[in-house]
Amino acid sequence: MTDKLRRIGILTGGGDCPGLNAVIRAVVKTAAYDHGIDVIGIENGFEGLIRDRCRPLSTGDVSGILARGGTILGTSNKDNPFRVPIRENGETVYRDLSEEAIRIAKRHGIQLLITVGGDGSLSIARDLGSRGLKVIGVPKTIDNDLDATDVTFGFDSALAVATEAIDRLHTTAQSHQRIMVIEVMGRYAGWIALQAGLAGGADAILIPEIPFQIEKVAESIGDRIYSGRSFAIVVVAEGAAPAGGSMSVRDMIADSPDPVRLGGIGNIVAGQLEKLLDRETRTTVLGHVQRGGIPTPTDRMLGTRFGAHAVKAAVAGENEVMVRLRGQVVETVPLSEAVAKLRRVDPEGELVRTARSLHTTFGI
Ligand code: F6P
């Protein structure tokens, strides 16, 4: 017979995004009001579990955080209990401290851990699950690249920021008759670029799923400029790459589950277009502005629904599952399935076809 659930833990792992606090609030309130369950907050992602930084979260602690960006628990996209860097004799060695992390969780009376994260954090949660800690995952990421859910919270907020940036670039592009290149995030998926590009009326959208030829981009932008509309907007996903070329890497972060940090393609594209078209071109790299600030109502709603559902699933005895949205329904899916596949843009899909029919080029 399984023990009655009295205490659960929650942590937020990986890069932050708007809507994390909505999940924390929903978990704490649903646990307390509906089920009389205590919640322990673990600070800075899995680091808090490795270093024992855990604190009780009361309903008072989560009051007023729904509209706040970031995460009140802090997060980390480096710490992995299965691979903890330790200095020994002047050298860094890596140790598996997962058993110790599970012991820390159990010492706090945590019977089940809700992990709010992207594919990296959810994979760690799955592996802790196989070591005997009960886990439930909640998917987040502005990249919207988890195949197992129709959408992740954080994406809508990032999309709103990127679209507003494009709108603002439009007016200054028009005043100066310039080409404006805007580089947006999204890692290996082009969802932010594609949807912000569509919503903002971009003239070119370059995404990782469709390798581009700069000459084709220039041809299309040139047609537009020389036919009288003397400015243009080019949206470039950070993971976009030329046909036959590779993605632009800005940085490598040691100890991160995915050490690659993309960036720089916006400037490359701008430099090439300026040369090919002999037209003043400027680049805006939107960066972490896309991850900061208040969540949109859609993300607050989704975070709230996911958080409440995670608690219900825990009470119902579910384990090693991830909460997800399919159609209009919030449900669970096995964690192993949830982290198995990234969701990327279909180059022949409806969104790409729609953009093409509006004469937006993808550079092919
Ligand atoms: O996964 C979210 C994300 O913002 C990506 O879009 C981006 O590539 C990456 O994280 C940036 O990571 P960091 O915050 O470590 O620079």
What's the short story on this structure?
The chain has 364 residues and is of the alpha/beta class.
What's the topology here?
Layout lengths: L6 E6 L7 H16 L2 E5 L3 H5 L3 E4 L26 E5 L2 E5 L2 H10 L4 E6 L1 H12 L3 E6 L15 H22 L2 E6 L6 H10 L3 E3 L7 H13 L5 E6 L11 E4 L7 E3 L2 H13 L3 E5 L11 H19 L5 E6 L2 E6 H4 L11 H8 L7
Parallel strand pairs: 1-2, 1-6, 6-7, 7-14, 8-10, 8-13, 9-10
Antiparallel strand pairs: 2-3, 4-5, 11-12, 14-15
Bound molecules: 6-O-phosphono-beta-D-fructofuranose (F6P).
6-O-phosphono-beta-D-fructofuranose binds next to strand 12.
What can you tell me about this protein's structure?
With 364 residues, the protein is an alpha/beta fold. 36% of the residues lie in helices and 21% in strands. It has eleven helices and 15 strands. A seven-stranded mixed sheet has the order 3-2-1-6-7-14-15, sandwiched between helices. Helix 1 links the parallel strand 1 (7-12) and strand 2. Helix 5 (155-176) crosses helix 6 (191-200) and helix 7 (214-226) packs across helix 8 (265-277). The longest helix is centred in the middle third of the chain and has 22 residues, at 155-176. The termini are far apart. Residues 15, 77, 118, 141-143, 185-187, 238, 261-262, 291 line the site of 6-O-phosphono-beta-D-fructofuranose (F6P).
Profile the largest sheet: 7 strands, mixed
Mean pLDDT: 96
Could you give the order of strands across the largest sheet? 3-2-1-6-7-14-15
Unreliably modeled segments: none
* C-alpha end-to-end distance: 60 Å
Mind telling me the C-alpha Rg? 22 Å
Would you tell me the structural class of the helices and strands?
alpha/beta
Work out the number of β strands.
Answer: 15
